[in-house]
Amino acid sequence: MRVQFLGCGDAFGSGGRFNTCFHVSGGDGAFLIDCGASSMIAMRKFGVDPNGIASIFITHLHGDHFAGLPFFILDAQLVSRRAAPLTIAGPPGLEERLGVTMEALFPGSMAVERKFAVDIIELAPEERRVVNGVAVTPYRVRHACGAPPFALRLEAGGKVVTYSGDTEWTEALIPAARAADLFIAEAYFHDKKIRHHLDWQSLAPHLDAIGAKRLVLTHFSPDMLARLGELPAEAAEDGKVIELG
Predict the structure, then answer these.
(1) So where are the chain's domains?
(2) Could you tell me the CATH superfamily of domain 2-237?
(3) Which end of the chain has fewer beta carbons closer than 10 Å to its terminal beta carbon, N or C?
(4) pTM, rounded to two decimals
(5) Can you give the pLDDT at residue 193?
(6) Could you tell me the maximum CA-CA distance found in the chain, to the nearest angstrom?
(7) How much is the pLDDT for 245?
(8) CA dist., res. 165 & res. 152, Å (int)
């Protein structure tokens, strides 16, 4: 399994980083974890073929995590000439929010007939579901976004990747990431505690209980970016590639 961080920034482009979007590929094909507003730009920058992506898994319905979907769908229709179906899986409310967002950005785009199907799957907490060969289990976390926010545990090619999404500390992250081959965790601040977001000092005491084989931190504020040199953990960067052999 190959994981590439196409975007690992926060909502505000701190450090010049793209919005959240991770590209996962292997023997069974490729999928995205989140698709923030800048994700098409990141895919072009890093040479990712959008037509090779069968599924997109969304953690929550904030623009820096899901607002790249209208651009992805319209690129598939008008530029990349996609023919294969696309599956988008995420929290309850995804289908309605996607429709509203597409119509706000590109009026009339929802009514256009396309040469490929777009299948929307709304996931239920702690209900494991297989989507195009990828097993996904969502865990409800704590982040205000107008719909249930999830951490996602994804199983493909014999490997497990968990992404925390945006959340303050919650015990749900322990089963979500337990013994994962890769745990991608938000660490918005180093030690400052704010509602709805995770800081390194709140996460660190629970890492033994989680027992992930590899931890990569992401979604940094300017405060966190300035302190990465003193952090005893691996940090994400746009373009970074991890091979899970």
Answers:
(1) 2-237
(2) Ribonuclease Z/Hydroxyacylglutathione hydrolase-like (3.60.15.10)
(3) C
(4) 0.97
(5) 87
(6) 52
(7) 82
(8) 7
43 burial via Cβ count (<10 Å: 0-12, 13-18, 19+): buried
Eight-class DSSP state of 31 = E
Q: Is 176 helix (H, G, I), strand (E, B) or coil?
A: helix
Residues in the chain: 245
177: which residues sit within 8 A by CB, 6+ positions away? 151, 153, 162, 164, 183, 185, 210, 212
Provide the pairing of β-strand 150-156 with 134-140: antiparallel
- pLDDT for the residue 128: 98
Averaged pLDDT score across all residues of the chain: 96
Percent of the chain with pLDDT over 70: 100
Phi then psi for residue 74, to 5 deg, are -70, -35
Structure tokens at 16: 């010049």
**pLDDT at residue 35 is higher than 80:** yes
SS (H, E, C) 119-143: EEEECCCCCCEEECCEEEEEEECCC
